[in-house]
Structures are given as structure tokens and as C-alpha cells.
Amino acid sequence: MEKQVLDFVITKTKDLLAAPSACQEVKTAANAWLAAIGTDKEAEETAKYIAELQADIMPIDGLIAFGETELALQIFGAEGVKGLKAHAQELKASGAKYCDCPACAACKAILDRKAEIL
After folding, report:
1. How many CB atoms lie within 10 A of CB 61?
2. Chunked in runs of 10, what are the mean pLDDT values of the chain (118 residues)?
3. What would the 3-class secondary structure string for 23-54 be?
4. Cβ-based neighbours of 18, under 8 Å, separated by 6 or more
5. Do residues 46 and 29 lie in contact, with contact meaning Cβ atoms separated by under 8 Å?
6. Calpha distance 89→92 (Å, rounded)
7. N or C, which end of the chain is more exposed by having fewer CB within 10 Å?
8. Which conformational region is residue 38 in: left (phi greater than 0), alpha (psi within -120 to 50 degrees), or beta?
9. Contact 18, 65 (CB under 8 A)
10. pLDDT digit string (tens) for 15-44?
11. Which parts of the chain fold into alpha helices (H)?
């Protein structure tokens, strides 16, 4: 991977790790990838990391469906869920394919450069 691309992915990975919305599985994969940079495990961990990013990024329809769950209500409260649902519908109407929370935004930024990474 070219240095410029590597630096970009490292930056976005740090953004992902700092995102409160990032799940533990993606954080584990991100940390394993960071630890493998420059080692003989780098290619293997890169492939695992990309696979985890693809599994964890929230499609916009998934975000809309999440807004209808009891868990969303518990996390965000009634007013927060109303805002989440409205925001998700606006995203979909604008053509967005994925959630735009900090974790998903970092995932998307990395996945958008997948061809340069693998």
C-alpha cells in the first residue's frame, strides 16, 4: 500500500476508534490491523479489517429500521428517535447508502479506497 494511502487509512482508523458508535468487533479489527502494519501479518490483517468494515457499516435502510426498535428508544429517548428517523429519511432521500455517524463515516471513507488498500 502506498504511504499516502496508508497514512489516510491510519487517520480514518483512529477516527473510527474514537467514535462512540463503533462496535467492539470493528475496534478489535482496527487495533489488530494497526498492530500488524509493517509486519508479515499486515496483508492478512488488512483483509480481515476490510471484511469487518464491510460487515459493520450500517446501510441506510438498516438505520431506518433501527429507528423503529426498542433499543433505539432506550438509547436516544423518544425525541432522539424522532430526530434519528427524520435524519435517516433525509439521508435516504439525498441518495445516501449508509449511516453518517462518525463510525460509519470512517468505515465508508476507508472502504471507498478499498481498491488502493488491498
Report:
1. 11
2. 96 97 96 97 97 97 95 94 96 97 97 96
3. CHHHHHHHHHHHHHCCCCCHHHHHHHHHHHHH
4. 102
5. no
6. 5
7. C
8. left
9. no
10. 999 999 999 999 999 999 999 999 999 999
11. 3-18, 24-36, 42-56, 60-66, 70-93, 102-111, 114-117
**Closest CA relative to residue 113, chosen from 42, 49, 60, 24:** 49
* Amino acid of residue 88: A
Q: How far is CA 19 from CA 12, 35, 103, in A?
A: 11, 19, 5
Nearest alpha-carbon partner for 60 in 44, 84, 83, 77:
84
Q: Which of 105, 109, 112, 97 is nearest to 60 (CA)?
A: 97
The separation between CA 20 and the C-alpha centre of its own chain, rounded to angstroms, equals 11
Three-state DSSP class for residue 59 = strand
**Residue given cell 429517548 in the structure block:** 77
